[in-house]
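hey so u asked for the seq, here:
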Amino acid sequence: MTIDYDKIRNVLDIFNTQVKKYGNKPYLWEKIEGKYRSYSWNEISEKVSKFSSSLLNQGILAGDRVVIVSENRPEWQIADLAIMAIGAITVPAYITSTTADYKYIIEHSGARLAIVSNNNLAEKVIPAITESKKCNTLIKIENDKDQYDKPLNILSWTKLVNENSNNPFDLHAAEQKLKLEDVACIIYTSGTGGNPKGVMLSHKAMITNCKGASIILKEITSELNELRFLSWLPLSHSYEHTLQFFKMGSGGQIYYAEGIDKLLVNMSEAKPHIMTAVPRFYDSLHTRISQGLKQQSKLSNIFFTETVRLGKKNYYGQKLSFFERITNNFLDKIVRKKVKKRFGGHLKALVSGGSALNFEVGLFLSSLGLPLLQGFGQTESGPVVSVNPPKKIKLDTVGPPLEGVQVNIADDGEILVKGDNLMNGYWDDPSATAITIKNGWLHTGDIGQLDEDGYLKITDRKKDIIVNAGGDNISPSKIEEKINIEAEISQSMIYGDYKNYMVAVIVPDFEYLKIWCSENNKVFELKDLLKDEDFNNLIKSAINKANKKLSVIEQVRKFIIIDHSFSVENEMMTPTMKVRRFAVKEKYKDSLEQLYK
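ran it, structure tokens below
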């Protein structure tokens, strides 16, 4: 089913090759009026061709940047391919971002046009566009509001796709012009300084990832007559953005999920063979299954416990007795088959990436017949560096490097990566590029080691970035900057690695607090104030004000208050932010972890 990537010239070539092969067979699926409806390869190709013409008619030229702000849907891929087809560059942005985030991305990338899916997103993006020097056009996918009180050129997606019926754009001719080294997209990722960096990914980088993934998963995909995927991770994330081209290259059908709240329902409808997700999803899956057991009979619980026990023995390579083998085969039919059916009944593998997978969660799901393939990467590497192969899974590692990717461990333990999967650099930031890529090696900022089988194991992180449970890169300094500017707060330290939300250590501004206590007849004694509702509401109000300047994933949900500053007089023996944050985190880790319970 998979194409020959050695003969592929660019991403558009993958698409055109598969259109020729599959024609009127279903390709992309979306929910319409409660039912999944498919678009064939030919239908999508026709829409890409028409939208490419529309972009040219709007004056978009090769090299121009076009921002996409939309949830996952067929139009996302159509727009992405059309932008690439005319030689322009896609700039994905998260639907959870703020107007300030959009303004930065639009201005920094120099985007000339933005595509949004609906009115709610348009209301956030339009103010960012109106302040832009180059971007003055917005294309709306859904026609849910036609009038805006802004001097802006707003166009209808439907009209643009339909108005070029007599003037189709030649996708095959366009394919001939695109080079492997050409930048296909710029994906913004958080940096330690607070401002996001624009990672330039070439066609070559993403195709290298697709080829490597196809080799790793060949054992699964080669035995299937058709391949189905469920897409729910944001296409604005490099993980899902590149994966869509792997899915395309495998000839697979892509179902777009309606949202995380309907994910399990959509899985039962789409019946996917391979599911890609972040650890947060698997943690949730583990919790749901465990909670569901409490409603089951005592016999069902016995069967389930035995299934997990024998599954773990299999994982560790421990020999099963004759009776255990018979029992295990029996449990395959009455437990594991039932578990798989809840997720569509056809799952061959679950792929985990974006952040660290909890080993026990991975072992639990694998024991239930849901093999988990943990991988590793970052946007700058296309994004995938390594992943576990189905034939030999090591859940405490992120697997061996993909074909065409080299991994080396520096003297200080930092993971270095080299290969055609690397970015072309950071957009308009040569100094940051030079720091990140030295002598052809990407310095990942992660610490790790290679085991005797060449599997990579992540042991620590060198860079000052938080990776949440959803795999998002979050700059703690950016959040701290927003919080510390509030009059009530002197200092803050953000915490949230591999968590569902951010929490913080807060140091109040003691000069402000003295005045506040005097005005409100309070005794200036922090240990007493910590129990005072008015004081806690004061700090909470300050954090809420800061949260309004942050995206959803950056917002601080809970916090602890301490009674001294982060200074060299106490635990901070160095002025550098990274070491300071590490020391504070270590000292208050137990208290911070309690905020998640």
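Residues 5-204 form a domain with the Rossmann fold fold (CATH 3.40.50.12780). The radius of gyration is 25 Å.
lmk if thats what u needed
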